[in-house]
């Protein structure tokens, strides 16, 4: 993807991180999904006193996208701190794979909070993703 679009998406993820609700872990995460028509859907992690009810930033972004009527993501940017290029957890990889286009691999921008990033793809992060057989969807 072009550098300008990628940087815009990364900046949106950094912005979304500011809204994170993480009073328990204090670990703020931001994500932003770009859909085929150019719309960007942000998301942040939302923690809960019942820890297991916590939602990751990536899945918040997916929920934002789907509940707005979109199911065609082309890229996602994720960020959490200034030292590591952010990686999505296993559950989020699986959730993203539900909507990833098999022919045009979903781009994953692993960002730091300073705006630098590395680019990979969902199939590199989750080879052999689980999918129901055709007709069972
Ligand atoms: N978290 C995310 O938002 N995304 C990930 O991919 C990994 C973990 C959140 C969940 C929790 O609020 C905090 O980071 C610490 O695990």
Explain what you see:
With about 140 residues, the protein is an alpha+beta fold. The chain has a single domain (about 5-125), classed as Cytidine Deaminase, domain 2 (3-Layer(aba) Sandwich), CATH 3.40.140.10. Helices cover about 30% and strands about 20% of the residues. The chain contains four helices and five strands, in the order αββαβαββα. It has helices spanning about 5-15, 55-65, 90-100, 120-125, and strands at about 30-35, 40-45, 75-80, 105-110, 115-120. It has a five-stranded mixed sheet with strand order 2-1-3-4-5. Strand 1 (about 30-35) and strand 2 (about 40-45) form a beta hairpin. The longest helix has 15 residues, at about 5-15. The chain is globular. The chain starts with a helix and ends in a 12-residue tail after the last helix. The relative contact order is 0.18. The mean pLDDT is about 95. Tetrahydrodeoxyuridine binds near residues 22, 27 and 92.
**Number of strand elements:** 5
Structural class: alpha+beta
Give the bound compounds. Answer: tetrahydrodeoxyuridine
The backbone outline, from C-alpha atoms, is globular
Q: What is the typical, i.e. mean, pLDDT?
A: 96
Helicity level: 25-40%
As a whole number of angstroms, the C-alpha radius of gyration is 14 Å
Tell me the β content: 15-25%
CATH superfamily caption: Cytidine Deaminase, domain 2
CATH topology: Cytidine Deaminase, domain 2
CATH class: Alpha Beta
